[in-house]
Here is the input.
Amino acid sequence: MPGREPEAHPDGVTARGDSPGPGPDATARVLARAAAGAVEALGGYAGGVYLRSSTEELLLATLLGLPAPLFRPWWRIQTNRPYPVAEAYRSGQSVHLPDAEAAMRRFPQLMAGLPFPFGSLYEPVTAGPERFGVLMVLRPATPGVPVGAADRARMREAAAALARELSALAAAGAPVVWEGDPVDVPAPPEPDGAGGAGPAVDRLAQAVLSLDRQGRIRFANTAAETLLGLSRARLLGRVLWEAAPWLGHRAYEDHFRAVFLSTEAVHFPVRRGRHHARDWLSVDLYPGSDGLTVMIGAAEQPDYAPESVAQPGGGPGSVADRASALYRPVALAIALTEAVTARQVSAVVTEELLPAFGGRQLAIYLLDERHLYLAWETGFPQGFLNRFDGVSLDTRLPGVETLTTGRPLFFESMEKLAAAYPGIPLDAHLGARAFLPLIASGRPVGSCILGFDTPRGFSPEERTVLTALAGLIAQALERAKRYDNEAARARGLQSALLPHRLPVCAHVDTVARYLPGTVGMDIGGDWYDVVETDDGRLALVIGDVQGHGVAAAATMGQLRSAVRAFALSGSTPQEVMSGTNRLLIDLDPGQFASCCYVSLDPATGFVRAVRAGHPQPLLRHPDGRTEVLDLAGGVVLGIDPQASYPVTELRLARGSVLALYTDGLVEKPGVDIDVGVERLRTALAAARPSPLTETADRLIGEAGGSTDRPDDIALLLALRTGGAA
Here is the structure.
């Protein structure tokens, strides 16, 4: 057990570390009286005072009712951390947590390290603008029953009285900031089994000890003397972990923290040697408001060694191993910031979280109204989790209860899981399980199940890290859910702005394809259209508005409508492009657009085309020869109101295929666009001209089938099937 036992002080207060001067002594006595009075007034079993330090941290200055070394991780708290002590100090407001559920909802990081059922009250100690620290009282949990008005008033009165005394000390020149370790307030000694109790307990084969709330031995029976190898006189007054060093292993700290903080008994196996099976013992801890009863007896070797929790995942304890164990959670946090969809989030958790803790199974359930649905699984037997898909929130299952209570659940073996949930189906006989609530900003998102192939323990550090990572996973899944919803709405808008169908025209078949980008959340401004004009010609249009998002889509819708209106009015291709350019400049959306407009006579194959900064079309001749056309062009739309757009004339033979496309089909980051155009030309040359739908699918698949597309893709194909030769 870390730390050494503090020495007794003449006034009943014990100091830790170097002996303080008269000033600190006076401060320590004031703090001890205040903590003891508050604990008694509130019906608590432990309490203490945090004082600010010279570095503006909060340091635990005095503690009673708990063994200080067991709670060393909470001796020093930064004022900006999400802990109740820090919040009470920062805000100047009381923090009352009647039970573990309330504490988990508000302070999950605290409960990850102390996942035990207890109630706690925190009151800022202030005098006017002066903030000294925080008074703390721990007491039994009152599930579902908030802290009453009378107890709130008693806590305020105790803190106010302490503030007055500290103000007086400060005025007298005594220090009211704290440096160093906390001061223990020992409990009064107990009789060593007077009357008939002592002889009765001495007849037991099990070792029986009574501890005060600082962990000091107040009574030991004969079997305890034999087990520990010390006489009763030498045992009394000693801290348990000094008398039995094998109980001071870090693997057992959590059990002692649990029994000192809650009213529930704790049972666990312990190993005092390394040579024989008889080295295994069973330890039973029975807590009370005034102390702790310990019973130790013989036990069989368990399926796993509890000492495995000493290091994360039960691995070696070298500096390199610890650095590696820390790297994985950090890598997970970084990777989660880049995951966009729920599937990507789940894949990141599988790749980063499982290896970090030696896990083999993972399941993620997401909440939809009042049911949990399986969103991702790996490592479980096929079909095993199907029976839990869609379970309601009133079902007694660990994956449900971890979400409804907000408390992570850790089971060191499958036997413990089965004992806690009788009748629950198990996918294996050996292993361990962790059930983590996925809660983002107080909103339930789902639950996460981590599975391990062998029994193992979970150290306080692991519990804290896993709970914190569960919060990050929940935030990422919540963000992914918003992305999915917004992306669906955006795709719906994009679809509404594009043609629902293309006109059926004699002598010409047309097919179009559109693929949204898969990187980022914004929709694009790519569009295509086919317009039958009054003179029997066919207008083939494709364009691309610069940028992404609703603004780009809105501009795209306006341009498509403008081009269609100009085409139907009988305007020449040059007039269509010039008019659309001036319209975009008048609208002044802060965006520009590229466009290619082709006017085709289906009967003769005669083509007049204009281009505004858009990629050159491709033409596949009937013999399969495919070329990149060289259409004269002008600047992109929306830049120069005086821009001119020259017309290029050509003729399509029967069996020719004209391909119009946006740059998303041929552009890839870090690759010259000419390479993409050549790849598309080769694919079009190799494709059969008919049916045209197959050609379109092949071009999209071969040239634009990447799963990570930074840009949208639009493709418009026109096949001349008849008319004059």
In short: Residues 460-497 form the longest helix (38 residues). The domain at 197-302 is CATH 3.30.450.20 (Beta-Lactamase). DSSP finds 19 helices and 28 strands in the chain. Residues 171 and 332 are 51 Å apart (CA to CA).
